[in-house]
Design a protein that fits this description.
By secondary structure, the protein is an all-alpha fold. The protein has 9 helices and no strands. The two termini are 24 Å apart.
Length: 234
């Protein structure tokens, strides 16, 4: 477990974390929907980032996603939408015999590189500890990259609520939980996952999401003063 620290995160940083990680979790978990994607373009979501904007990887992700948005400013063609769905399926569900970017922690950290291993159970226990069990509990692995990002977003939201209520004890507990979860889980494999996304995604949209996630994890580690653990290899 991460050694106990005193955290001094502010409202702006926590709000940015909540928004950024919740967005990434949704974008990486749900199959692309044309109406949602067109809403992102219309609202110019990728003109800036609410978190980690000074990270080089965040800037690279924004550049790719803004380029993708500009290309589709007048609508996403049937072919381009098909390409997005195919990229999502190949990356997160698997068309090839070997998935290029497995989204589950246990595949990276377990001895046999399989899903539903000890890592999955440990992550689930973290969710239960904060009453944040995923909707599809026991139906799919709990250690999906998107679910871990959403969990951190929820912890940041709880930290923000505690800060606004001037409850320093709860604030420190939730910030410490973020730091510990990063150290014990997400940072041990998340950056490897990001680099694989950056290499294997075939669309600027998903490649950009890989870079945005990369930048967010680096920013989280810096904000929470977390040392990087030994990374997985796959």
């Amino acid at each position: 477990m991460q050694k106990t620290m005193t955290f001094t995160l502010d409202t702006e940083s926590l709000t940015g974390e909540v928004l950024s990680l919740a967005f990434l979790g949704r974008a990486l978990y749900i199959e692309p929907e044309r109406e949602w994607l067109q809403g992102l373009i219309a609202e110019q979501v990728f003109a800036d980032a609410p978190f980690g904007v000074d990270q080089a990887e965040t800037k690279q992700g924004l550049e790719l996603l803004q380029s993708w948005s500009t290309k589709h400013a007048n609508g996403i063609s049937d072919q381009d939408f098909f390409d997005l769905k195919q990229d999502y399926t190949r990356l997160f569900i698997g068309l090839d015999p070997i998935m290029p970017v497995p989204p589950w922690e246990s595949v990276y950290l377990s001895r046999d590189h399989m899903v539903f291993q000890d890592e999955t159970r440990q992550v689930r226990e973290w969710y239960f500890r904060f009453n944040l069990a995923p909707e599809k509990l026991h139906k799919e692995p709990d250690d999906h990259i998107a679910l871990e990002l959403i969990f951190l977003s929820r912890l940041a939201q709880l930290s923000l609520m505690a800060l606004e209520q001037n409850d320093q004890q709860a604030f420190q507990v939730y910030c410490q939980a973020q730091a510990d979860f990063l150290t014990e889980h997400l940072l041990r494999w998340g950056l490897v996952w990001c680099r694989r996304m950056e290499e294997h995604a075939r669309t600027d949209f998903y490649r950009g999401l890989g870079y945005l996630t990369h930048g967010s994890l680096l920013e989280l580690a810096a904000t929470l003063n977390v040392q990087f653990p030994k990374e997985a290899s796959l």
